Each structure stands twice: as structure tokens, then as C-alpha cells.
Amino acid sequence: MALEFDIRFDPAYGHAVTVAPDVLRITANNPSPFTFHGTNSYIVGRETLAVVDPGPDDDTHLQTLLAAIGGRPVSHVFVSHTHRDHSPLTARLKQRTGATVLAEGPHRPARPLRIGEVNPLDASADLDFMPDVALADGSLTHGDGWTIRTVLTPGHAVNHAAFALEGTGVLFSADHVMAWATSIVAPPDGAMADYMRSLDKLIERDDRLLFPGHGGPVTAPRKFMRGLKTHRKMRERAILERIRNGDRTIKDMVAAIYRDTDPRLHGAAGLSVLAHLEDLVVRGLVATEGDPAIDGLFTPAR
Q1: Would you say 85 and 30 are in contact if contact means Cβ atoms under 8 Å apart?
Q2: Which residues neighbour 217 within 8 Å (Cβ) at sequence distance 6 or greater?
Q3: What residues contact residue 150 under an 8 Å CB cut-off, 6+ apart?
Q4: How far apart are CA 280 and CA 239, in angstroms?
Q5: How does 257-275 read in b/e, with b if 16+ C-beta sit within 10 Å?
Q6: Roughly what angle, to the nearest 10 degrees, separates helices 250-257 and 266-282?
Q7: Cα atoms found within 13 Å of the Cα of residue 278, Cβ hemisphere only
Q8: Where are the beta strands (DSSP E) in 11-152?
């Protein structure tokens, strides 16, 4: 199934945009190759509110959020995961509103670091974050006129969660599913096997509209996510083909597979290839000496 990305998006910096009944989107002015036009925060409710993903620790974004809140009480702040473009503003928003902070848990890697391994993603992690309430899969949080169901979706990060606005068909998908690009799955923060399981989990749901952490909505979720799954399987096949044709290093695989990709993203692409290789080694399709590593040598399994 062909995967078509939608890069049409007006971030409307400094303003709240109504995207669904009782749902506002505010986009932080933190554009980059990884964040698209910036991080989306969402305000849910009419009288007593919830905020989903406060975003980066940015004064202007905080003031835009507070202006949209307009003095109304905020009972809950939901955090999808602990990358620094999503969670750091939480502490200041909690201080201003007194809201209860909910998330799967603190930041941690998807697997233990291996001997001699350095986590290249530490700089992007919000290591200070700690929720008031740790959310379990399927848990319901009731607010004033709204109910949010937690849907745990590890993969992009081990503590990644999506949030379903019950009774509306709306799911806040954060960085797991985005209309403008694929999600980065980068060890040791993330794991490809987790990501694929979480993708299947969302495909099985009947959501009609996904509001992601970056960019515009996904308007045909099941079709798009099936395309994402096909895309990942094609990437896996491309990696296997490169190895069978003689590539032994991730650097060589990235140069071939991502030749049309912005070079600024090649580092992330290398980690994505590593995520696939970790999965392929576990499944017995690729061999390497010791644990899969970013500088390792990979051969076809015998």
C-alpha cells in the first residue's frame, strides 16, 4: 500500500486553532528537521480543561498556552513521552495551574546500555520529568465533560503513550503516527519490535482522526497506518538486500537507502537502521559478532 505524506500545515504560531469540538491546537515555534514546523500542544475541554503535551520549555509557548486557557481551571496535564520537545514545559504549566501530571513514567531506555555504549539521544531526553500519576494501558481519566483513555504505544520511546478522547473517535497520537513523516525509532531509546506491535495495536482500533505531535491530522488512520507498516517492512527488506549484496556497515546501508534524504537526518537514519537490525538479529535473519551496534559488521545469517 502506497504511503502518502501530507506536509500541508499552517503552524499559526502564537494562536490557538480549533481542530475539533472542544479541542484546541497550539504549535510551538521550534521547527527543525525532526519537529517539522514545531511541537503541537492540545487543550481539551470547555470549562475545566486538560492539556496534552505542554511542549518545549519556551516562554512564548507558555504564554500562548495560558492565553488559550484563559483563566479556566486545568485539572490534568497528559504527557505522551519524555523527549525535550514534548515534556519540559510541564513543570512550569503545573506550577501555574496546579494540574495533576499524568504519563506512562519517567524517561528511560528501551533496553540497558551495552558495555562501552554511549546513548547518542541523552541530549534529547527530559531526565527531570516525573509524573504525579503513572498511567496503565487502557486506564480511563475522567474530566469535566471529557474522558481520556491511555493507549500505551512504546516504540519511538519506551514510555510513549497515545491518548484517546473517548466517544469522539479522536486519538492524540503524539510521535507514534504523524501525517508528515515516519516516526524515528532509535535505540536505545526506542525499539523497532515495540514500534511494530504498537502500530498493530492502533490499526486494530477504530479511531477516525489522529492528532499528532507534529504537523496536521491523520484523516484516514487505518489506511495510513497500514501504509506505515508496509513502509517499515519495505525498509526491512531493503536492509536485508543491502546486506546480501555485500554491505556490512550501517554507514554504507544509510548511504544507499537514504540517498535522497536530508543529510542532516542521516544520523537518525543510522539509528533507525540499527533498530531494524536489532530486530532482524533477534529473528535470526542477520548475524553480527556480539550485540548489534552502530559501528558493527553485519552479515546474512547462515
Answers
A1: yes
A2: 19, 179, 209, 210, 211
A3: 102, 104, 135, 136, 137, 138, 139, 140, 141, 161, 162, 163
A4: 10
A5: bbeeeeeebeebbbbbbbb
A6: 120
A7: 24
A8: 17-20, 23-27, 40-44, 49-52, 74-78, 100-103, 133-134, 140-142, 147-152
This prediction has a pTM of: 0.94
Any idea which residue has 483513555 for its cell? 149
Contacts (Cβ under 8 Å, ≥6 apart) of 28: 38, 39, 40, 41, 55, 56, 58, 61, 85
Could you give phi then psi for residue 223, rounded to 5 degrees? -60, -45
Cell of 52: 496534552
Angle at 276 between CA 254 and CA 34, to 5 degrees: 60
Are residues 188 and 110 in contact, defined by beta-carbon separation less than 8 angstroms?
yes
Closest CA to 216 of 2, 7, 4: 7
Cβ(85)–Cβ(35) under 8 Å? Answer: yes
Q: Which three cell numbers stand for residue 266?
A: 542521516
Cβ neighbours of residue 198 under 8 Å, at least 6 residues apart? Answer: 152, 153, 154, 155, 160, 176
pLDDT, tens digit only, all 302 positions of the chain:
468 899 999 999 999 999 999 999 999 999 998 999 999 999 999 999 999 999 999 999 999 999 999 999 999 999 999 999 999 999 999 999 999 999 999 999 998 877 667 666 666 899 999 999 999 999 999 999 999 999 999 999 999 999 999 999 999 999 999 999 999 999 999 999 999 999 999 999 999 999 999 999 999 999 999 999 999 999 999 999 999 999 999 999 999 999 988 888 888 899 999 999 999 999 999 999 999 999 999 999 97
CB 16 within 8 A of CB 64: yes
Q: How far lies 82's CA from each of 156, 174, 213, 219, 242, in Å? A: 11, 11, 12, 26, 34
Residue 148 DSSP symbol: E
